[in-house]
Amino acid sequence: MEEPTSDIQWHPAFFEAIQLELEEYRDVLIFNIEYDLTAAPLKIDVVIIKKRKNVVIKKNRQC
């Protein structure tokens, strides 16, 4: 019996969720999905770049 694969494509959903979470700062952030880190196949899931240094992003939540 073949084992089920665990290749769930969660990156697009996570990318959309992080954009929604930071929507109020959208004008000062750049979102890149699966950004290539090197010429090799290494990738990071999401890169968020703040376009303006003077903007304070208050998104720390305690559960």
Overall description:
The model has no long low-confidence stretch (mean pLDDT 80). The chain has a two-stranded antiparallel sheet with strand order 1-2. The chain has a domain of 28 residues. The protein is α+β, with helices and mostly antiparallel strands and 63 residues long. It contains one helix and two strands, in the order H-E-E. The N and C termini lie far apart (41 Å).
Task: Describe the SSE topology.
Blueprint: H1 11-21, E1 29-36, E2 43-50
Antiparallel strand pairs: 1-2
Structural class: alpha+beta
Mean pLDDT: 80
Strand content: 25-35%
User: What integer value in Å does the Rg equal?
Assistant: 16 Å
Query: Residue share in helices?
Result: 10-25%
Q: What is the ordering of alpha helices and beta strands?
A: HEE
Query: Are there runs of 5+ residues with pLDDT below 50, and where?
Result: none
Count of DSSP E strands?
2
How can the largest sheet be summarized? 2 strands, antiparallel
Q: Give the CA-based shape.
A: globular
Terminus-to-terminus distance: 41 Å
